[in-house]
Amino acid sequence: MHAFYLAWQYIRHNRIKSVLLVCGVTLTIVVPAAVFILVRFGEEWLMSRAASTPMVIGAKGSRVDLSLHALYFRSKAPAPIGMAEAAKLREAGLAIPVPLYGRFTARSFPIVGATLDYFDFRDLRVASGHQIAKLGDCVLGARVAQALALGAGDRLLSDSENVLDLSGAYPLNMRVTGVLAEERTEDDFAVFVDLKTAWVIAGLGHGHQDVSKADESVILDRTGNTVVANAALPEYTEITDENIGSFHFHGDPAGFPITALIALPRDEKSAVLLRGRYEQQDAAAQLVIPEDVVGEIMEMVFKAQRIFNYTVVCIAAATVLFLVLIISLSLRLRSTELQTLHKLGCSRHTMITLVGAELILIGGISSLFSAGALVLVLQLAPVLMRTFLA
Amino acid sequence: MPLPELQRRALVQIENVHKTYIMGDSEVRALDGVTLDFDEGEFYSILGPSGSGKSTMLNLLGCLDRPTSGLFKMDGHDVSQMDDNQLSDLRLKRIGFIFQSFNLIPQLTVSENIALPLYYLEWDRQRSVERARELADRVGLGNRLGHRPLELSGGQQQRVAIARALANDPRIILADEPTGNLDSATGKQIMSLLSELNGQGKTIIMVTHEDEVAAHSNVRVHMRDGNVERIDRNA
Ligand SMILES: Nc1ncnc2c1ncn2[C@@H]1O[C@H](COP(=O)(O)OP(=O)(O)OP(=O)(O)O)[C@@H](O)[C@H]1O
Ligand SMILES: [Mg+2]
What we know:
Chain A is α+β, with helices and mostly antiparallel strands.
């Protein structure tokens, strides 16, 4: 019989007390550590993305909403600005425009309408299949592909934005052409389509379903040139090799909507000039520096964390006092037992060893649980982060 | 079996021992100049009214306490000079304890309780388990090795405690009211077990306040006011 064996018997015999002790110690370790990990992780997650996105132009309004939208495809899409804004940027030669249109979702994942510039800018590689080639194509972020179990060659239907959509824009049945390599950024959680495809989803461009060639069973009445089809006609739009030629857009492309315009300035000077332009009173859109915006958010988070830290120190101190109380009370309850041990010839030194072994076991078990919980927190950090940011 | 007078050997020598407790500005003389020898192989009982110093005497004999003054020798060793570790060691190697309320460790099995002193003696597990089984057999509990104390009757618990007291093969067994928590029939069984052990050569010193229980011993030490009033020996 070994000191730890005796200690273990004691711990097992006093299960409830031991479980409570372990829970108390574990929570005292895990809660502050988890918050620390999540805040650091969140900072990393937010700041690295913000730092790599020099400028975002969008409709006037909340700077935070615009930044979160352009960086993480989050929050309700801001009011759109015209595609003309991108053209102006290119003509001025101050920056490369990377327009985004992100209003729709497919099975709850954001559909991001973008140009190929976006893939270059973010350095997104196609891991399997191939890049978007035609209208109606999409590539999936790694996590989307994983979550929906989709790959190149599969189909993905966009969510209908509104059941009572009067514009008559049907969901688009997109063709998945490829899956992107995992980036461990928000790009893993998005469905990418060409800007034009996004506009088709918005109902701005359409092809003509050739009803005259439709299956006879869906035709209700055919008199002369008027053909009336029933509701069994497909409830979604699909762009096929047959109908792709008939797709066209109405209106002035310069007025077509984008929800954010990432600007990659040529150099420092261009950046300064660009900022100047958008600071003018009559500017139709606003320009934000995501790093500044996210920095402001983090500043607030850190302030909150500082308050939290003080609270945790107080709670931890209280917990330690409670533990001391519990341990001293339980030693008192055990005084007969300890006295018996003493009378049987157990020296004080051995008794201290025994009680120490119990504390070490409780501490060890709590540390194991804490380590397990923290590994879990680390593992779940990306998911937790996305949930908090939603 | 008491040895013939000439061959008697004092296992414990007590000479003019005082034990004084200071309580504020009053002092309690729990032992007040006791002189007494305890011989090897005898069965002693210590009797006396409450507060006469019986437990104080037993604590001293058990090396749980040192006298305030006077000579106290155990098996030739001067106990009054020993520190806590040496006292523990002496208890561990020479003394077995039996308590009124058994004092078994509830979370340990019968076998583990019996083997507890062997743990402090650093015996290996295998040997301890064998020794525990042997002793459990000796007290008639060979079939209860895996039970916990609370699953046993009072008499059975006291048997386990006796087996535990024997684990280190002590010279002296000290018992403070060993039958105090037992009914008289069970008490008798325990007393005959102690007599049996005495017959096997163990020195037993027992505190009791019941003459019927004391009748099992061959020497009865009557105490009063911290001193020995008289000693009765069996003829
Ligand atoms: N730790 C102590 N502190 C102060 N006084 C003590 C202490 N222990 C014992 N005494 C006193 O010493 C005297 C002898 O006590 P002791 O316990 O030896 O009596 P006892 O004969 O065992 O009595 P009982 O039959 O009631 O158990 C008593 O007056 C008691 O109050
Ligand atoms: Mg007493």
